[in-house]
Amino acid sequence: MDPKTLRYAKSHEWAHLEGDICTVGLTKFAVDQLTDIIFIDLPNVDDLVAVGEGFGEVESVKAVSDLYSPITGDVIAINEKLETDPTLISNDPYGKGWLVKVKVEPGTTLEHLLTLEQYEKQIASEEH
Amino acid sequence: MALRTPLFDWHVANGGRTVEFGGWDMPVQYGSIVEEHHVVRQAAGLFDIGHMGRLSFVGPDALALLQRISTNNAATMKNGQVRYALICNERGGIRDDVLVYRWPDAWSMVVNASNRDKIVNWIAQYTKGLDVNVRDETTATCMIAVQGPQAMTLCRALTDTDAEQLAYYFATAAHYRGRNCIVSRTGYTGEDGIEIIASADQGLELWEELIRRGAKPCGLGARDTLRLEAAMPLYGHELSEDIDPFQAGLTWAVKMDKGEFVGREALLRRREDASLPRRVGLEILGRRAAREGSTVLLEGRPIGHVTSGTVTPTLNKPIAMAYIEPGHTTPGTLCTVDVRGKIEEARVTPLPFYRRPKG
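Predict the joint structure of the above. Result:
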């Protein structure tokens, strides 16, 4: 995935919409902040996820953080490889480290999410 | 505003992510906590521990004061010896865990950063009528730890003392580039190594020399996973004003027969109290780490709570320390832990989780 074409939640998830399938992942910024990711807890296939609601957690050596869905819909796939190799998310957060695929209602857009430029502004203000 | 050690600017300039810890802005990591952890287990890591409180006790009544406020027996210490002790309140709860150093003409103490003001004020209550001068030397000095199997060879001829001749838990006065310092064979990682106290204005040159010698900077994140594997208690987690040394498994640091000291009467009672929770090690059998506050259950009934937990980088599995009801503390006992709403199987494990190979 090209980060320029993605949209972003303030809580550091990215979303990519193709037809009615939305792929969701965690941004490189979030992954770099977490470091040492050891475990990722994802929803089950067929679970309903909703914008802004927790759908899993990512655990690093120092802490555990909730994952929030940037989109509403039904989970149709989860990245099962993360279970055996959580480093995929650290090494390739926009590719092999994707989290879930969600089937959305027709007409759903990503307009409620931040553009890359807006997201970068937000993380610049988080860094100190 | 949080305090800063003389190395703060170096940490920031070199990728250190700083957090407030015990009133200080300290680096939690420079890169990967796991890599920093492995460096200490396999080679030599370098820690800025300037946040630790450093107090000196000078005067004819210094020993009497230390005997009064701490649980261990300072009177039997040799010159240069370092001894772990607890400072208790009148109820026998732990106010702080400290290291006491005996010098030919004085004593010193290293206390936790978060407890420094509390302990300085506490000590002041017990100095009345005693001829002793207690000084807080924390901001005038720096403190740096070099820890790991290569620490001692890496520090060869760093100062004018031969640190390899120091026995474990002994310290000596020395000179670094012509100026006074202290070299102490102590640490908080479960590895061999030294801790050096020098003038604050020498901190940066000492730090940079140790890096040139091959020590790799490590943050408080690795310090925490290292001490957890070594089952060393951390104040505010395993130790508090409501926990006594017996509960914490620190009976060896309490010398009831040394004479009167603050908390002794309460401790005489608490020692006999078989109802108090005890510190244990837990191995979580799933993948998710139990964290501070997680409830420990036995057949669905709460029997205690986790005080520290992580995934151990050395053993690559979740471990925790917890306080649980006595009677279930036998290693091998199976229990469960509520890890953020999901029940995980766990097993009581002997402490420490990690013990360094004898060299």
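Chain A has four helices and nine strands.
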